[in-house]
Structures are given as C-alpha cells and as structure tokens.
C-alpha cells in the first residue's frame, strides 16, 4: 500500500500557473476597454478645457512669463502612462493576451496625452 506522500508525487502538477479562459480574458478586456475609454475622454476634455483657460492675450511687455509647475502635477501626468504600462505587463504575465493588448493600446493613449499635457504646461 502506498503512502499518501508517494501518491501526491505521482499526480501531475502544472509547473506554470494555468491561464484564464479565453472568455474571461475577453470579458476583462471589454470591462477595461470601457474604463480606459472613459479615462481617455475625460483626460482629453480636461486638456482642452485647461488649454483654453490658460490662453492669455499677448502682453505688451517683453518680460518672460515664469510659471512653476508642482512636482505632483508631473507625477500625475507621467504616472498615468507608467501605471498603464504596469497593467499591460501584469496582464501579459497572467497570460491574458486580449487584455494585455487593450492595456497596451491604453498605454499608448496615455503617453500621447502625457506628451500633450507636457507641451501645454511648458508653452
């Protein structure tokens, strides 16, 4: 009669974590797609609203205008793409290819918006 420990050794155990089902991958990707779309639209509208609000009439003096942008602002602007990239990486490691692609596209959109915000703040 075999001991319980030898029976456990005979059972095949996967060395890698099983990947989620394709249906789960697609469902998570669709949920994230909706959330990502809302985030991109709101960020784009904020970009336009802030950009229009900061436009000033030309000044008559030739003195340069100096503005200091807080570090927290830069952290928010460039933290978004960093978090999106981390999300894409995590979903790729979880072996969820559809979700990883959706998050990769969201990362590109976040980088585009971060560049636009940076250009607006530096101009």
What does the secondary structure layout of this molecule look like, with pairings?
Elements (H helix, E strand, L loop, with lengths): L3 H7 L11 H32 L17 H23 L3 H26 L1
Helix pairs in contact: 2-4, 3-4
What does it look like?
The protein is mostly helical. Helix content is 72%, strand content 0%. The chain contains 4 helices and no strands.
Query: How confident overall, as mean pLDDT?
Result: 83
Rg, alpha carbons? 24 Å
Count the helices. How many? Answer: 4
Order of helices and strands: HHHH
Distance linking N and C termini: 80 Å
Q: What can be said about the biggest beta sheet?
A: none
Percent strand equals under 5%
Derived from helix and strand composition plus strand pairing, the structural class reads mainly alpha
Number of strands: 0
The rough form would be described as elongated
- Unreliable parts: none
- Percentage of helical residues? over 70%
At a glance:
The chain is mainly alpha-helical.
Keywords:
123 residues; mainly alpha; 0% strand
């Amino acid at each position: 009669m075999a001991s319980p420990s030898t029976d456990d050794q005979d059972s095949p155990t996967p060395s890698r974590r099983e990947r989620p089902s394709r249906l789960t991958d697609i469902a998570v990707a669709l949920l994230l797609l909706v959330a990502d779309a809302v985030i991109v639209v709101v960020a784009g509208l904020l970009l336009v609203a802030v950009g229009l609000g900061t436009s000033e009439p030309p000044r008559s003096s030739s003195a340069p205008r100096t503005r200091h942008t807080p570090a927290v602002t830069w952290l928010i602007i460039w933290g978004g793409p960093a978090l999106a990239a981390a999300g894409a990486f995590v979903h790729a490691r979880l072996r969820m290819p559809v979700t990883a692609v959706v998050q990769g596209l969201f990362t590109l959109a976040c980088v585009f918006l971060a560049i636009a915000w940076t250009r607006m703040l530096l101009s």
